[in-house]
Design brief:
Layout: E1 2-10, E2 13-23, E3 26-30, H1 38-53, H2 57-60, E4 65-67, E5 70-72, H3 80-84, E6 92-96, H4 104-118, E7 123-127, H5 134-144, E8 149-153, H6 159-169, E9 176-178, H7 180-183, H8 190-193, E10 199-202, H9 210-220, E11 224-226, H10 233-245, E12 276-278, H11 286-291, H12 296-312
Helix pairs in contact: 1-12, 5-6, 9-10
Length: 313
């Protein structure tokens, strides 16, 4: 059980806790967020068990590398260059917008600074994590349209709102990607059936593992972006193995987030280089596990959680 510090708070999280498990096939990770119910956590545990113990080809045979985007937290413009420097060679930047910690004017300033630094050829996508209502989202898209957005991720919380927003803003030509509406819905394919999004953001742990995520992408019939859930390099490796198995991967993946961690569990973290990360299984360091061990109280909390969630499987 580890507690890993972040370079800057990300969606209110300054320390990322995770259970790192040694499976028959290699190291794996179980790291649902604290506010997730045991029922939601069951998918995360299925993913951890599959990656650590399954011998299936679609789980263990990923090779090569995958292109990744830079991830920009809701920082002031004067910190943008510092954050970008951690994502060597990235041609795409995903920028956090919306939420109580930032105003639309501050979002615009942050996106403008990213565009200035990456130039006209760079790709910009923004992620509101479902914090806008329909009117706020429409207004924000107008304010941000000048920066030539690749897409906007989860501008509104519900599938119904996404459908309405797509209808209102279709003329603007800004694609809508669904993240939370895929991974926190009982039926992730409902997004595609409802016509709520142009792109699916796929996170391997919340969806129950590599095999299940591949099935969802095939059945949805929409382009996919594989993203991390702010995991350690072990969890990111799980996502990289998924991305390596997806045919015609059109978009750079949100799997460069080890760059946002001060701490990690491996001496060879999956940091971006030349705009990619390698598809490997990191070797976990016993020394780093000990150095970044969570408190006894938090470790006990996670062990009890694991026991409860395992019983649901």
């Amino acid at each position: 059980m580890v507690a890993l510090r972040l370079v800057t708070p990300f969606r209110g999280i300054a320390v990322r806790e995770s259970m790192i498990l040694r499976g028959e096939q290699g190291w794996t990770e179980f790291s649902p967020f604290d506010d997730y119910s045991d029922a939601e956590c069951a998918s995360w545990l299925r993913a951890a068990i599959e990656f650590g113990w399954s011998r299936a080809d679609d789980v263990v045979t990923g090779t090569g590398s995958v292109r990744v985007n830079a991830t920009m937290p809701a920082v002031r413009p004067d910190r943008v260059a510092e954050i970008l420097s951690r994502f060597a060679g990235a041609r795409t930047v995903k920028i956090k917008v919306g939420g109580p910690e930032t105003t639309l004017a501050e979002d615009v300033d942050r996106v403008r600074e990213v565009r200035r630094l990456i130039g006209a050829e760079g790709r910009i996508r923004v992620d509101a994590n479902g914090t806008w209502n329909i009117d706020e989202a429409e207004h924000a898209l107008h304010a941000l349209a000048e920066f030539d957005l690749e897409y906007v991720e989860q501008p509104c919380a519900s599938i119904h709102e996404l459908v309405q927003l797509r209808e209102r803003t279709r003329y603007m030509g800004i694609p809508i990607a669904a993240d939370e509406s895929v991974r926190r819905e009982t039926d992730p394919l409902e997004v595609a059936r409802a016509g709520a999004a142009d792109i699916l953001v796929i996170k391997v742990q919340p969806l129950g593992g590599i095999s299940r995520a591949l099935q969802i992408v095939r059945e949805a019939g929409l382009p996919a972006v594989v993203s991390s859930a702010l995991e350690s390099s072990v969890g990111i490796a799980m996502g990289a193995h998924l991305a390596a198995r997806l045919p015609n991967l059109e978009f750079d993946c949100g799997l460069g987030t080890a760059a946002l961690l001060i701490d990690d569990v491996t001496d060879a973290p999956l940091l971006p280089h030349d705009g990619v990360i390698d598809v490997v299984r990191p070797q976990v360091s016993d020394e780093l596990l000990a150095r970044h061990a969570a408190s006894p109280e938090r470790t006990a909390w996670w062990r009890e959680r694991l026991t409860r969630v395992h019983a649901l499987l």
